[in-house]
Model the fold of this input.
Amino acid sequence: MNVLSVDIRNAGYEESKPVIRDVSFSVKAGELVGLIGPNGAGKSTTIKSLLGLLRHVDGTIVFEGEYKRYAYVPEQPVLYEYMTLWEHLQLAAAAYGLDEQTFLRRAELMLDRFRLTEERHRLPTGFSKGMQQKMMLIIGFLLQPDIYVVDEPFVGLDPRATRDFLELLEAERRRGAGVLMCTHVLDTAERICDRFILINGGSVVAQGTMEEVRAQAGCETDALLTDCFYALT
Done:
């Protein structure tokens, strides 16, 4: 079952000036799909189109699944200057419509998992980049949605936090959540993703499993994702 279906004919920031064209793909329940491409290829425009942040989108984007809910984890943390970590979590829970008991249980578990329990009453504006990124991951995991849209999640995370994130993501996939992950960390992407969407010049240049991407890139059967990336972009 698909939890996200995308068929974008064209999209951009100005009318009649498309940045991306013919971007079509899907994400199934429990599947991790990597959105890969060089800077300026159209990955951010694709994500903004999914999230309804662009006015000029010609196409169809459907969030499916049991609840038709998604969680977005941005590359750059979104912080409110005078709100503590705990207040950020409370605000997210209110926006998601979580009941208090569910919020408290999930929030406590996530704070403990990412070792931020002692920081709950501090202002995240004073946190390190890695701690701010952990907060954004916690907010995403609070919802337990049908699909996660995650943009460069490894930026600033230390190895232990990266492991925690991947373990939680795997647990969510077992629950049935799909994941669309945009990342430049290609060795990790190759290891954890089920399928890949490679974008270059505003269009999809290859997609599928690692074997299918190798074939589309004209690479050897043992080529790495990095090799395919260079061949296609």
